[in-house]
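#struct-pred
JK: can someone run the complex with BIS(adenosine)-5'-pentaphosphate? inputs below
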Amino acid sequence: MNIILLGPPGAGKGTQAARLVEDRDMIQLSTGDMLREARTSGTEMGKKVAAVMDRGELVTDEIVIGLIREKLEGPEKGGFIFDGFPRTLAQADALEALMAEMGKKLDCAIELRVRDEVLVDRIVNRAKEAAAAGKPVRADDNEESLKVRLMEYYKKTSPLLGYYHAKDKLKRVDGLAEMAVVEASIKAILDS
Ligand code: AP5
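RT: done, structure tokens with the ligand placed:
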């Protein structure tokens, strides 16, 4: 199965994708992780996107579509989980075209429904926990960047809910529930 996890920053996309990788042998395609990796390894592209990411803004469609194209050409295993992609209507159209070109199909887009207040707490806590454990803190995990990330989500990504609804591919789960409950809800959708 090929699925999209949709939701604002801190909704739990990465957490749930990791559980599906573990349990269902799926492949997580996180454009956020790919971009952070490019920054760490100091590629030209990584340097180009660093400031944009730190401010909480979206990087260009062209860059992320290129990253996804490369990964789709790789092994498929139990299917792809798109985590943090697509984030704009142009990216959604590009994904559809890429999948068609490669003879693959998207099964569903799962929205993790949450409330903004909870997201702020989750992100601030994630930063505190990383710092306490001596791990690197994401440069965009602060209240100022989070405001921008949320606004980017509402302006540019939330229209995808209508897009996938119109294609009869949108499913919803309560992202405020305990992680194990969210996981069970997602698996129930995959098994239905
Ligand atoms: P990206 O890395 O995708 O970040 P994001 O969407 O802001 O998402 P997060 O990773 O913060 O949250 P998440 O939903 O994965 O939640 P998580 O599971 O970590 O993007 C970063 C940047 O890269 C963007 O701002 C942009 O600049 C660029 N970018 C990336 N993709 C792009 C694209 N396609 N186009 C353009 N630009 C792009 O959970 C968060 C915390 O909550 C964790 O501490 C977790 O333990 C906790 N938690 C999770 N679930 C629960 C639960 N059910 N109950 C309690 N706590 C929970």
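RT: quick notes.
The longest strand covers residues 108-113.
The beta strands are 3-6, 27-30, 80-83, 108-113, 170-174.
JK: thanks, will look after standup
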